[in-house]
Design goal:
- The chain has 2 domains: 69 residues, no CATH class; 49 residues.
- It contains 2 helices and 7 strands; from the N terminus they run E-E-E-E-E-E-E-H-H.
- It is rod-shaped, with a radius of gyration of 26 Å.
């Protein structure tokens, strides 16, 4: 079985077809390869198939112009927002008016939650560490 791939100017594989002969529509535009190639795992450079290096993290995208992985700030920001929202939901109990918590602890939790909400205004957003939750000898969580 033969495989035919097409690719763009940056080397990104745009299509792959198989067959004994090159499809008429691809004549002059396709490159023959020996085996099936997952277009997400390789690119073409100087007429050769190059396997992508391992992805450093789910927040990285492959830049075909640079031929390297780059950190995708939008993906990091989305992940950070999801984590922040989960932490706010996890600590909702601290702001219930009928919760028997000392007022100084409730104020500390309120400040922590506000710091979570304000984190997107940090100059290094989204590459920031979340604030630490308040620590007490015993949270009065019930």
């Amino acid at each position: 079985m033969k495989y035919w791939i097409t690719f763009d100017q940056e080397g990104r594989i745009t299509s792959m077809q198989n067959g004994l002969e090159i499809p008429e529509a691809l004549r002059g535009e396709a490159m023959e390869v020996e085996h099936h190639i997952d277009p997400r795992s390789a690119y073409v450079e100087n007429g050769q198939i190059v396997i992508l290096p391992a992805q450093p993290s789910p927040d990285h995208m492959f830049d075909y112009r640079r031929k390297s992985w780059v950190l995708d700030d939008a993906a990091v920001a989305t992940r950070q927002r999801i984590a922040r929202e989960a932490e706010l939901r996890r600590t909702d109990w601290t702001q219930m008016p009928d919760h028997p918590m000392p007022s100084e602890q409730k104020a500390a939790w309120a400040a922590y939650r506000q710091a979570l909400r304000d984190i997107t205004a940090h100059p290094q957003w989204p590459h920031v560490e979340f604030p630490s939750p308040p620590q007490f000898e015993k949270d009065n969580k019930q």
